[in-house]
Every structure is written in C-alpha cells, then in structure tokens.
Amino acid sequence: MAGPDHPAAAAAAHHAVDHADHALHSADAHSGLEHSDESDFDDEPYASDESASLTWISWFCSLKGHEYFCEVPDAFIEDEFNLTGLSQSVNYYVEALDTILDIEDDSNEPQFPEEIEAIDSSAEILYGLIHARYILTRQGLDQMADKYENAEFGTCPRVCCAGSPVVPCGRVDLPERDSVKLFCPSCSDIYAPPSSRYQKIDGAYFGTTFPHMFFQTFPALVPDEPISPYTPRIYGFAISERSRAGPRMQWLRMLPDPLPEHDDDDAAGAHSSDDQSFVEADDGAADELLPTATATATADDALTESMDVGTDRRRDYSSSAAAAAA
Amino acid sequence: MSDKDMDELSSSDSGSECGKYWVEWFTCSEGNEYFCDVDEEYILDRFNLTNLQTEVHYYRDAMDLITDQMNERPMSNEAREQVELSAKHLYGLIHARYIITMRGLAKMVDKYKRGDFGKCPRVFCNNNPLLPVGLTDVPNQKMVKLYCSRCEDIYNPKSRRHSMIDGAYFGTSFPHMLFQTYPSLKPAQTEQRYVPRIFGFKLHAAAELHRWQDEQRELQKRRLGIASNGGNN
C-alpha cells in the first residue's frame, strides 16, 4: 500500500545509520528536496520546526486519493478509550500508533524492510479505523460538514439529483471487505466513486453509520425537493409498463407526495353532501388513470373502482400516468 | 453521386490519423467513443436528411466533408474550421436518426455489449452497461446522459470529454427503442436496494419510505398480472 516515498519508510531506512528524526525526513520527502546525509545533519536543529508543519496525519490526508479523509486531532488518538478494541484488529498496533502520532522510539532494534512495510500498512488501517470512529463525534462531523459543503467528496452522478454533493460511506464496518462508496442524500442511494484511485480506499474507514449520523445531525444539509424522476419516452410518448421492456423500476425513485392539502381534499370529498359532484369528479380521474379497464366496465364497477383508485391516486399518479400516456 | 476516383483522391489527401474516411476518423478520435459509424448509403439517401439543411450552416460543404468529397478549392483556415464544426454537428444529427434504424440499433447493440458507454455507477446495479440518451431532441440544449437499463435511471458521464457531447446526437428515444427491439437484452431487475443504518439499526423515515415504495412495486406487479389476464380474455 505504501509507496517507496513513504516518509516513515524513508526514515526507518536511515534509522540505523543516523538516528535522524523521521519527521524531518517526512518533511523533506514532501518538500521535494534532495538531501544527502550531510545536509540531514545540518538540518537537524530545524527538525522540530519542520515536523510541526507536516505530521504523519497531515501527510497521509494530503496524499492523492486520500481527499475523503479528514485530519483526526492527536488528542482524540491519544485517548485510549477511543481506541478500545483496535489493538486486536491491527497488527503491529503499538508501532502503528507511534507512526501515526510521530513518536520516535529509539529503543527498538533496526527493522527489516518487510517489517517497515507491514507497520506502514498497519498504520494506514489503524488510522482509517480511528477515522471511522472520529467522524461520528461532534467535532468530526463538523469537519466533514466543511468538506461536504465544498463538495470535496464529489457530486451524485444521477441526473435527477442535480449535482447534489455526496458523502463517503462503507458497506461493512470490518476492514478489507469492500471499498468506499458514496452516499447521496437526495436519492438515498450509494454509488461507486468515479475515479479508480478511490476504489483502493477501504469503506470501513468511513463506516456504515457515518452518512446517516451526519444527516441526522445536520438535517439542513439534505437537499430540498428532488427533480421528478426520469420517464423513458419514445418519440415523446412514455413507454407503457405493460410492454415487455417497459418500466419496472420506477418504484425505486418514487416519492409519496407530501401534500397535506390532498388529504384535506379527500376528507372534504368524503364528507361532502353533494354526492353527485364527488362521483363525477372521481369518474373523471378514473378515466384518466385506467382508460382500458374502465372503458369495458359497467358504470357501477367504474364507480367502485374509481373510489379505490381515488385513494391511491396521489401516490400512484406518476406510474399510472406513464401507462395512460402510452 | 460518389465518384470512386474522386473518393480515393480526397481521402488520400485528408486521410491521416485513424481512418481513411472522415467518418472513420471521427468515430475513432478521442471523446467520440459513443458514436457508431453511419453507413454511407444512409447518409447519401436524401430522405434521411430531411430538414437538416436548415439546422446546419455550410450544409453543402459539411456534407461533402462527411462523404469525403471535399474538392480542393482554396479556403481560409477560419472557414475550414467552421466547416469542420458543421460537419461534426451534421454527423451527430444524422447519427441520432441512424441509431434508431434496424442497422443502427444492431451496431449500437455491439457497442453496448462491449461496454463502450461505461458502467452504471449505482452500487446495486453491479456494473450494468449503460446506453447514451438525450434529454431533448433539439440540438445545443442538453448534454448527453447515460441510461442504465437495470435501475432505469439516467446518469452523467464520468469523464468531461463525454459530458460535453450534445444529447441530441443520440436522441431521447434511442435506448428505449433498443430495448423494445431487443427485449431480451434487458437485464433482470433487482429488488436489492441500499438500506441506511445507524449502528445496524434502520432509520425510521427511510424504512417507511422503503415500505411505501415496496408497496408501489407490489401494486404494479399486481396491475401487470391483471393486465396480462385481461389481454388473454
């Protein structure tokens, strides 16, 4: 997972030779400066300054493809309570934690390259799992809200969501099962990230709970009314659902009309003393909704059917209209 | 109409990157992966081009360019560019008409099977191949979108160069015409869907909406069952 440019790896490689501060190396590796061993020694007095400017966490979050991560504050990681149970799920737990917190431990024996690599990938997993916990806290949610408002996670690919921003989410909370997905609050569905570099990011680093916790906490961030769903048409005519290849998935994007007026109308109609007008009105609705069925039925049948249809009308309208138009 | 010698002459002059003919060159140049090559006979049949003269500037020149009959009269760079743009526009409009003919559909089916139009980004569609579709048949209004036959919804193309193609070059009818013609290509629909959960517990509002949507699905199924019985009677 970690490339050769990983600062910790670079640091550890030098470890046995010059015991230089690895944070210094991490800073060097990313400022793009070429340093010989001599210049490393020259720079030693400034090590603390440079390490302050780029910690392992900020380096990790600035990597290409890691744009979805937010920076977890040290204080959260240093609190052991927040790490409960993680020592079992990560190999080289102690070393990985030290890497994340930029703690240099000189007492350890020089490490083998394979071991360094294993620690690096453990650090990544550990950080991801801590991240999944952190973003459920108030502070983490706030940080993610900033990223969401800047649409740093991208936008929904669905046309009818009109570019609604998305948030990352996982499908399982266990690491190394599935890659990260994007949850769209407008259609409540999940999508694969557009770029392949995000397909290597584990979904467990964000967790299954995060998007919903996020929108429960910030209900104002849920986009307003979505655009009406897409209706397949040929030469402008909606395709009948009775056709073999007709629409069958409209239910997935259907929304009940949240219009209380309709309920009032129905109630008023039911209590209305003027039965005649009620029947006529519903008859018209029935003709509009079920042209084939009502055409053959008798007047009485049409009446009962229309009353059934009338109650369903609000919800059922879009699909029935599609059928009627074709 | 087409003079063979003339054809060869002009194509050897202009033939460069990819294909010998303009249409070949156009369909295999970058960003035009969604287009299929329109048969020359189809382009040369004037009936198929009805009303396109009014839509495209430099219609005659553009037509000559598409059919590789551009004669070597001197032309300023600006005019050449204009003609090139018009030719692309004209080709797109012819393409929209062509792909809903039997032959065009067959070509697009091949591209669909190869997955030339990409995969559905929706997780529960399991990488179902997409088809291009327009939101309007009037040019210069809306860019091309991609239709997924599994979730029956439309998506924006992933890459910028595809999202800049005019939707009218494919038309609103195309994917639906394709599935009406080849209903067996329509994938099995899935009732799988994403269920939002917090710490493993479903959310009330989402669960309520899902129950309602499931009810709508069952209603439709029942309706279709009734419809097929009615057809038998």
TrEMBL record, chain A:
Record-level GO BP terms: regulation of transcription by RNA polymerase III
SUPFAM superfamilies: Casein kinase II beta subunit
Protein name according to UniProt: Casein kinase II subunit beta
Biased segments, Low complexity type: 287-301
GO CC annotations, alphabetized: cytoplasm; protein kinase CK2 complex; UTP-C complex
Region (Disordered): 254-326
Biological function: Regulatory subunit of casein kinase II/CK2. As part of the kinase complex regulates the basal catalytic activity of the alpha subunit a constitutively active serine/threonine-protein kinase that phosphorylates a large number of substrates containing acidic residues C-terminal to the phosphorylated serine or threonine.
UniProt xrefs under SMART domains: CK_II_beta
Single GO term (MF): protein kinase regulator activity
InterPro entries noted in UniProt: Casein_kin_II_reg-sub_N (IPR016149), Casein_kinase_II_beta-like (IPR035991), Casein_kinase_II_reg-sub (IPR000704)
Listed Pfam families: CK_II_beta (PF01214)
Family: Belongs to the casein kinase 2 subunit beta family.
Subunit structure: Tetramer of two alpha and two beta subunits.
Automatic annotation (TrEMBL), chain B:
Domain of life according to the entry: Eukaryota
GO cellular component, one term: cytoplasm
Gene Ontology biological process terms, A to Z: regulation of transcription by RNA polymerase III
Transmembrane feature ranges: none
Pfam families xref list: CK_II_beta
UniProt cross-references to InterPro entries, sorted A to Z: Casein_kin_II_reg-sub_N, Casein_kinase_II_beta-like, Casein_kinase_II_reg-sub
GO molecular function: protein kinase regulator activity
Family note: Belongs to the casein kinase 2 subunit beta family.
Role according to the record: Regulatory subunit of casein kinase II/CK2. As part of the kinase complex regulates the basal catalytic activity of the alpha subunit a constitutively active serine/threonine-protein kinase that phosphorylates a large number of substrates containing acidic residues C-terminal to the phosphorylated serine or threonine.
PANTHER family the record matches: CASEIN KINASE II SUBUNIT BETA
Subunit structure, as described in the record: Tetramer of two alpha and two beta subunits.
Protein name: Casein kinase II subunit beta
Organism for this UniProt entry: Coemansia interrupta
Source lineage: Eukaryota, Fungi, Fungi incertae sedis, Zoopagomycota, Kickxellomycotina
The gene coding this protein: CKB2
